[in-house]
Amino acid sequence: MPKIQWTDLLKALRDHLFERVRERKIAAEDPWKLKIRRESEPEAPEGLWYKDFGSFRICGEGKYPETFLLRGQPARGQPL
Q: How many CB atoms lie within 10 A of CB 56?
């Protein structure tokens, strides 16, 4: 199973992710949880997935993270 790809993302995808972080006003401590998760080099399931970090969820498909959602916004796919 491939790892979730956090680096060398397409510019449009990277810009989208940073914009969502700004828009969603993610709690200051939660990006640390994401950093720790990234460092664990999690595997990427096939299809849609999401990981809940408290004040936000990161959603992706396959090896690519795709967007951030606020707590309470519905996510599709397999929870990680």
A: 24
- Residue 5 located in a structural domain: no
Question: What is each CA distance from 45 to 40, 41, 66, in whole angstroms?
Answer: 15, 13, 14
**Distance (Å, whole) CA 75 – CA 80:** 12
Number of structural domains, the chain?
1
Which token pair is 46? Answer: 């096939």
pLDDT (mean) for 55-71: 90
pTM: 0.69
> Do the beta carbons of residue 58 and residue 51 sit within 8 Å?
yes
Residue 2 belongs to a domain:
no
pLDDT of residue 28: 65
pLDDT in tens, 38-60: 888 888 889 999 999 888 899 99
> Phi and psi dihedrals of 39, rounded to 5?
-65, -20
